[in-house]
Amino acid sequence: MEVRIISREIIKPSSSTPNHLRTHELSRVDQINFDIVYPAIVFYSGAPKNSDHLKECLSKILTHYYPFAGRVKDHFSVDCDDYGVSFVEAHVTDNMSEALQNPEFHKLEQLMPYKPHEMLTTEFNLAVQVSYFGCGGVAICVCFRHVIADGTTAANFLKSWGKVACGGGVDAILKDVVIDFSSIFPPEEWSGLSTNINSEELLTSSTDSIVKKFVFDEAKIAALREKIGNRPSRFEAVFALIWKAVTGSKTEGDEFVASMPVSLRKKLNPPIPEQCIGNIYSVLRASWPLEETINYKGFVEKLGELLSLVNEDHVKKAFPNGWAVVRMENDVGRNTKSSRRRIFHISSCCGLPFYEADFGWGKPIWATIPQRHNCGDNIFVILFDTCEGKGVEACVAMSKEEMAKFEQDSEVIAFASFNPTT
């Protein structure tokens, strides 16, 4: 895929941020996040090849999303100085169908305004790239500093930007975007917090890592849920299948621990509006004995019990002491002689409004996270809604050796389509 940069500029808020809002404190949950880049990309079948209206609307909404136009200071606060966001226009010579039919995630990274680790060398909290394809299609990629935004933030930002582009009133659409969560999750004075993670190493794939897309359509999801019984959610059903396929072929000495971010927006009382910015989630970690993994029904029941623990009491207990990661591991399943403790990280974007981001050209035909990880011994899975909203798309990252085994799993073959035409 040949991508040519047409222009780069900085978009500033259409009006200055008031003095009393100039400092936005990061919450304890923001602080604990790795200082990496969170990207999201949406594809459209056609759009005018002119970004002037997009820039104007972006400038307008930045008056409400003012921390995005500021700069992070020492991992403790954002200086909302109206520095602006990076806006890149690009032309892609290929037809968009090439990217959609057989997505190669290392090529999709060309649709990002910066390589993930490179953005962290800039002072931007948000960077945008609008890529126009030769066929008339367009892709919009947003990249956030993860310390100020999670997946829910990214999805609602795109949705809100689209509503404004369609003529909606900015003030009505973007009410209560920013809430000071430092009063709920007070920040900690952790010395050297921002220097603990090598972001370039984390975000640059090793040569033996690979990412592939697997789609579970509505009919296959229904069949899988019927096979499991007790009507599990789409997330629970797909998680169970992928977990079983991965752990069922593990080598002796391996121990897998599942890591799952769970949104807290609806867990607090009163609930936090979905469009509020920040990292508003907890991470659960768990391990299960192999016999519970093999039994779909038992595994889903255990998973449901674990997820139900994330409630108001959990939030109160988890965060006063500064821990965003709550470990709830089943020691019965632990192999004390394990030589490799491996992380199975799974996050779900299902239900987030990525497919509601309409800029006047209709809704997206595909939404995804165009980013790879240096997997090492670990496995990364991100779940998305399919375009029609009833199926599940899984982006699975693992070593090439394990991917070859995963693709041959009988139940993966039975329930998933491999890189189907979008």
TrEMBL record:
Keywords from the named record: Acyltransferase, Transferase
Pfam families attached to this UniProt entry: Transferase
Coiled coil: none
Nucleus in keyword set: no
InterPro entries documented for this protein: CAT-like_dom_sf (IPR023213)
Taxonomy, superkingdom: Eukaryota
Signal peptide stretch: none
Family: Belongs to the plant acyltransferase family.
PANTHER family: BAHD ACYLTRANSFERASE, F21J9.9
Protein name according to UniProt: Vinorine synthase-like
